[in-house]
């Protein structure tokens, strides 16, 4: 499991804190979704984990160990992260890209049988087998997202953190991506997904953490967090919450503020 | 890929042999063989071993070092235009050399030392600016710091040249155009030591470069601390470039062009890119130096001008093939 423990972050030069005393736990075997409006601090949680921004206070704990004691490489062995933006400066073969997920585990000149097996299984899980011989600049946005997921799965860490894993994906690929995350959780990993897709999150997440201005505004099951009263206040937009007709998960419908023009 | 590398090695061998054989006094293949095995005419022996061999060896090392240096910088800074000369190394070296010359200290070995010192000083100023800027997360900061230091160095050179005696100014200009004309085994040994240490280290770190080339956040996710790693790589690449400056002055375009050729041959994984950049760079500089000293013999063309003239059409053809 991974635990953000009273984490506060202030970006160098900024006056306001990006995160203030954020605490939540993402357990093994569960999908934990972090949601919230733009600028609410979702990505800062991920960047703090990766040490791209220093923690003002608090700690991030993985399976009881404070990550601050680890090297960057040790962190990458235990936590796989798919960052929000990433683009190869020079196009590379997709298969080589997925194999980079093994870098935290292997020596500078080495790869091993376990790496081959891990890569094969990650490729199969993410369904990117037919992409491997293509170059990264020939992939569609959705294919590139799936390839990044495959790379993170190949890292074989107990914790996997994804910052907006479904950007650029159409509805089928979006659903497939979340099904994959749920599958990873079922296999015992702790999955943390930062997402704007509240309706997907409510179908797939076991726990939802709602951030608002760097503070946890609500946390709990999708039913507990996805309430019109809570969401309207955080997103500052009128909305109603109805039910997914298939599984009854809360489903958000944002409302038009201006009347529909006559046609 | 194996075939391409074999052909490259073959090209390097052929160009190097041609460079040993051709010149004001041509040495044919049979005589070249006798120089190696013994029993050659003492004059051809002296020409090949004392004059041409150190020059060819130095060209080889200069090309390898510049090719690797450019490959590292383009990957670490995620910029296809990055090269050692863009990042202040050349400017710093030139300031060092011009200072030495205008102070009347034009002795070649002191000049080398001054250029090397100037290059390293510029590198540390660039690193200092990047560190102080606070924009740690951005790989463009190193690039911008390098450009700024280079611009300042250029201004300093213009001031120095404007006030220097005519003879010193002319010497400085020639030096800045790059030349292997005064190559000696001593220079080969110095650059060889630097390359023998830094080259393998860069190959060892090549996988970190693969990660950095994805961006700093992605590199961090793969277990590579981006700031510290790119500083280390920048320093190593600059050290290589500074050592070539001390040996041969400013040989332009190699660091920019060669990594692009290497990637078009073997893809984007940096271990292959760096190794092949060393090969391509060697071949290019040995060939360019051969052209520089034979096309208008007995006059010599500036090596830096020849590498650029050969490089520009190459570069244009690469641009055309770019998707």
The biggest beta sheet of chain B is recorded as: none
Largest sheet of chain A: 6 strands, mixed
Compute the CA-based radius of gyration of chain A. 19 Å
Q: Please provide the ordered H/E string of secondary-structure elements of chain B.
A: HHHHHHHHHHHHHH
Please tell me the overall pLDDT of chain A: 93
Q: Can you tell me the number of structural domains of chain B?
A: 1
Write the CATH homologous superfamily of chain A.
P-loop containing nucleotide triphosphate hydrolases
Q: What low-confidence regions of chain B span 5 or more consecutive residues with pLDDT below 50?
A: none
Keywords:
heterodimer; A: 263 residues; alpha/beta; Rossmann fold; six-stranded mixed sheet; four-stranded antiparallel sheet; 9 helices; 25% strand; globular; B: 323 residues; mainly alpha; ABC transporter involved in vitamin B12 uptake, BtuC; 14 helices; 78% helix; 0% strand
Q: What features would you describe in this structure?
A:
The complex is a heterodimer of chains A (263) and B (323). Chain A is an alpha/beta fold. Chain A is 32% helix and 25% strand. Chain A has helices at residues 42-49, 72-78, 94-99, 113-126, 141-154, 171-186, 198-204, 222-225, 228-235, and strands at residues 2-9, 19-26, 31-35, 57-62, 65-66, 79-82, 159-163, 190-194, 207-212, 215-220, 239-243, 250-254. Chain A has a 6-stranded mixed beta sheet, with helices on both faces. Chain B has one domain (2-321): ABC transporter involved in vitamin B12 uptake, BtuC. Chain B has 14 helices and no strands. In chain B, α4 crosses α5 (108-132) and α5 (108-132) packs antiparallel against α11. The model of chain B has no long low-confidence stretch (mean pLDDT 87). The chains are: A alpha/beta (263), B mainly alpha (323). At the A-B interface, α2 and β6 of A face α9 and α10 of B.
